[in-house]
Amino acid sequence: MTNFYKELNISAFDAISIAQKIASGPMLFQTACTLIDHGILSILEKHQDGLTLQELAKESDLNEYALGVLMDMAASGQIVLVSDDEKYTLSKVGFFLLNDNMTQINLRFTQHICYEAMAKLDEALTTGKPSGLAHFDKSWETIYPHLSELPPKAKKAWFEWDHLYSQTAFKQAILKMKEEFDPKLIFDVGGNTGKFSIACCNLIEDAKVKILDLPCQIELAKANIKEHGLEDRIEFLGLNILDDNELPQGADIWWMSQFIDCFSEDRVLHILGGIYKAIKDDAHVCILEPIADRQKFEAASYSINAGSLYFTAIANGYSRFFSTKQLTSLIEKAGFKVDKIIDNLGISNSLFVCSKA
User: Fold this and answer.
1) Is the pLDDT of residue 259 over 90?
2) Which residues pair with 286 in a beta bridge?
3) DSSP secondary-structure letter at 321?
4) Under DSSP, is residue 77 helix (H, G, I), strand (E, B) or coil?
């Protein structure tokens, strides 16, 4: 594992420069969003020789004043470059802001889910409640039962963010499970919209799946399953996994994808403990999670650590993305052992393959 944060070998001048950029970070973020939303970066991409403010104003819906303050900040943020004859061109940073799918999804998630709500981070940290969630509805206690009620842009941003990190790893993870275990029955715990279950049926021809999730989520999954014509291979069980349920038995694989990061440590232990009581002796628990200290690149670790603050301020007030040490400890406390960890699945996921200790 790589520790990206053990030391910082930069000068005091560079350090204070970074500190200044952090201090004005929200201004740069909003600048980037505005430039994208008004098509300014797209216009610059088409004019690689550059445009003056006057030329930009003729091609956009913003006047020269608006463009002037935006482009000055964009230049400071290295989103655009400015020539000596005051022509603006798109930089490499601007290109990726505009065209990189992962960057776009993270940007929209921050813009539509996190930005205003994150002003309540301090309150959330001190109260243990997702204070920022009041931005959407003051009566909501957690975000999960209300995902279908989010405003359209926020709902789109949330599901794209959630699916980006999990779904890019599904195929690799499923093929690993097929190769090692050839499972016939899989329990998809916290199945969300059914994307994993559908992928399982497509990649493991004789496997059947049962989705275990909140009743409101089950309804969303059922629509997707019906659309794919998989009603005969995918079953459903609506329940709250945090209740003292008698969980179903018989699965070869108990699957959880970006699920346990939605809960506090004591609740994760409760979930794993319930599975321990129901699981067959020769079955396995497979946990797919983005783990900050298992990343190849610092930018991925940065994004995962930022995601933990979303859980704090908005999602529920008490969960996070776990470190390797934290997740392993919880697995072992619940009576399981980690047989292996498979890294670099999809964009940033690791698969913890576990069995009864």
Assistant:
1) yes
2) 255, 353
3) P
4) coil
pLDDT tens-digit series, residues 148-192: 899 999 999 998 998 887 788 999 999 999 999 999 999 999 998
> What whole-number distance in Å separates Cα of residue 327 and Cα of residue 11?
36
Distance CA 211, CA 221 (A): 9
Indicate the pTM of the whole model. Answer: 0.91
DSSP-assigned letter for residue 356: E
Residue 14 is which amino acid? D
pLDDT > 90? residue 300? yes
Least confident among 5-9, 97-101, 217-221: 217-221
DSSP class per residue in 17-44:
HHHHHHHTHHHHHHHHHHHHHTTHHHHH
pLDDT at 147: 87
* Residues 262 and 237: beta-carbon distance below 8 Å: no
Query: Within a 10 A sphere around the Cβ of 96, how many other Cβ atoms?
Result: 13
CA distance 324 to 295: 11
Question: Which tokens go with 93?
Answer: 């940073």
Give the orientation angle of helix 25-37 with respect to helix 92-99, to 10 degrees: 60
Across-strand partners of 338?
354
